[in-house]
Amino acid sequence: MQIHPRAREYPDSQFSRPIRDESELTAGVKIEPGKSYGFFTDTTRCIGCKACEVACKEWNALPADSVGLTGMSYDNTGGLSASTWRHVAFIEKIGHGGGRATEMAPYQSNWLMMSDVCKHCHNAPCLEACPTGALFKTEFDTVVVQQDVCNGCGYCVPACPFGVIDVNLDDGKAHKCTLCYDRLKGGFEPACAKSCPTDSIQFGELAELHRRAAERVQELHRLGVESAYLYGTPGAPGATGGLEYLNAFFLLTDAPEVYNLPRAPTRASNRVMPSLLSGLATMAGFAVAAVALFAGASRNGR
Amino acid sequence: MADNIQTYYDHPQLKPAPFSWIVALYVYLAGLSGSSQMVATIADLFGGGRLRSLVRRGRYLSLVGTVIGPVLLIMDLHTPQRFYNMLRIFKATSPMSIGSYILSVFSVFSALTGGAQFIFDRAIRGPWRWIARIAQVPAAGAGGGMSVYTASLLASTSTPLWAASPGWMAVRFGSSSVASAGAALALGERWSGGRGYGRKLDALAVAALSVELYAAHLSQRDYQTKGVWGDREAAVWDSIDALGGYLPLALYTAGFFLGRRGRTLSEAASLATLVGGLAMRLAMQYAGQASASDPRTSLRFAQPENLPRAQS
Ligand code: SF4
Ligand code: SF4
Q1: Selecting from 3.40.50.261, 3.40.50.970, 3.30.70.20, 3.40.50.1820, what CATH number does the domain A18-92+108-266 have?
Q2: Contact flag B96-A153 (C-beta cutoff 8 Å)
Q3: Is the ipTM, as predicted for this complex, more than 0.85?
Q4: pTM
Q5: Collapsed DSSP state (helix, strand, coil) of residue A113
């Protein structure tokens, strides 16, 4: 990446105050309300350092959880939760299935790592399910829970097709990645993207990220990684069933299921009208039956 | 169907709904009291004034949902003191929001109907009977909603079992609610030595149970084709069908053929219907949560062939 000309204005290594529009220097994008922002997580660049996990916990002051070993490779986090908003998955492909590896496929295809996060779905099922309006679309086109509105009904939890959002039983509210809503307002790129040493996590305007991602897929295909594809871009796996697209999308090299991602998730609100209408039709039918039954009672006295 | 799906260390891919048994109990009582209101109102409007004691019992029964329902729902919130935020907005994409308003309307008008009935029963002068007759109409409409919106609530999630058969689950919930109301009112009729409309209510319950069994059969077909099915599920649904469907149907039939001597059997049938309705809601909730926690089920369900047409 090129050095932004404005960077020359900040030659010191310590700053007395925040840099205005810092994201321009760190991510090459100016953050302005009304535009669409997201993450492009390129799993082929991930080295599994978990800097994103740590940066997220630090910035968002999230409590530690599950201090212990899971037995799932180097993944002792397990998955996303109310207190873990970035999660690095480790998939060992060497000697998988008990066998011993005798040859290696090229380019990071032997050990997959992926930093998972809330997808900030375009048609977000969690948001559509939330009865209090606590979940909302921000001016940056991201999905955030307003902590002072959420009443912990928990309906967003089963609505999410990616198993992201969860209720914290200690404070009784739903929590998930905010795409660093507070940082975006201050002109900073999200903490995870800023801390990622390999740019596996890239923050930016969605259209620009889509362009970059398509280019990266082509580049990888050229390099012989035929299996590279995008997950969550329009028309791709993960953007199915009415979700349209995910503002936080991924470049993968194996089946979605391998990364614990659903191949064809759906928008839960698709099912509101079919179920409600068949239910009401059923009740109408029984109402007619009851009328016939009781009208008979009035005629013959029984 | 991709059967050899690889999982991520069998770690769950979805999070189960953080609902306790309280929600299943609410779903049951909402259906019971909602359908009771509907049956009572129809009995009042079309029964030619002969069904007054049945109408009274139906109205009182619907107070159960009115009084206990909101309490149960608030109890299951994780921040209960903010329950009123439910009425902060209305959202047509959220059955939880739609249901909050159905419950509100139902509660207000059922309380009005039941309250007026109570005062009328005490022979206090005033237009009480007419207040009840007018208020019961919106109460009955909302009661129909109370019987089925809970199915839409579960179906409009990503939980595989609930999402796999949205329409048939709603038919099932609705008919089970009507069957429960018929059963409860028949018991009231028989235990109070009423005028003998027990048979009519039994007939309503039999019709509702048959529809429920048929809808259960069709929803199970959906579960099978969409991969939300295994030996455990088969065992659960077979027992639910037997307990809440075939058993009461057999008892009703036997009670009917034995005539007056079959009264105990009819009562047993009513009780089995009531228990079966609650068991079905509990099974639906827990089996649903289990399906969400099982990555094999959820990843198999989220396959392109299960997408609604024109959306793949
Ligand atoms: S991934 Fe889940 S929590 Fe995130 S926006 Fe989509 S539905 Fe909501
Ligand atoms: S738990 Fe909070 S954020 Fe989730 S649906 Fe309920 S009110 Fe909305």
Answers
A1: 3.30.70.20
A2: yes
A3: yes
A4: 0.94
A5: strand
